[in-house]
Amino acid sequence: xxxxxxxxxxxxxxxxxxxxxxxxxxxxxxxxxxxxxxxxxxxxxxxxxxxxxxxxxxxxxxxxxxxxxxxxxxxxxxxxxxxxxxxxxxxxxxxxxxxxxxxxxxxxxxxxxxxxxxxxxxxxxxxxxxxxxxxxxxxxxxxxxxxxxxxxxxxxxxxxxxxxxxxxxxxxxxxxxxxxxxxxxxxxxxxxxxxxxxxxxxxxxxxxxxxxxxxxxxxxxxxxxxxxx
Length: 229
Description:
This protein is an alpha+beta fold.
């Protein structure tokens, strides 16, 4: 699977921040999500004391969310752990798994921030540009911005705002569960991101593609041969 060559990976933290500032202007905030038959979930896990991480990509069929394919890739890290720069640490792992896929998904859900990031360039946006696919950020915590109270019911949401700009939403995907934080990755708008995040939920806090991707990244869901779809 092709990956765009947008920058050198052998860079220091300040150079990485400059790459983020440059790439942020390339992110599309307009929805290009068309007919969706296959959705990907992307995650990365890394026990900090080991120095080795695993990136995972799972494919599920939409709308029944049947698991189609699981790919993982493990390697030593080439970039330090620095909040706000995690995409430089995690992207090479995810891309390693992505290159092993047998087919392309129509939409990618990413366990991480999209534009809900100080430089509007979280993992979901970074991967969206590298893969040239519609991506949605679905993070478990806030990196920047604030929001008001979220209703207790499933599907309740409020805007996440930073510096007067709406950068995402806090979304209750399961009744009384802690919200997840949804934002534009690339080639989606916020209404589309909210729709697809909730459409891919099946009774858990995380959308099903991300729940499965997490299990794969920690070794609880083995890599599989591709399934015909």
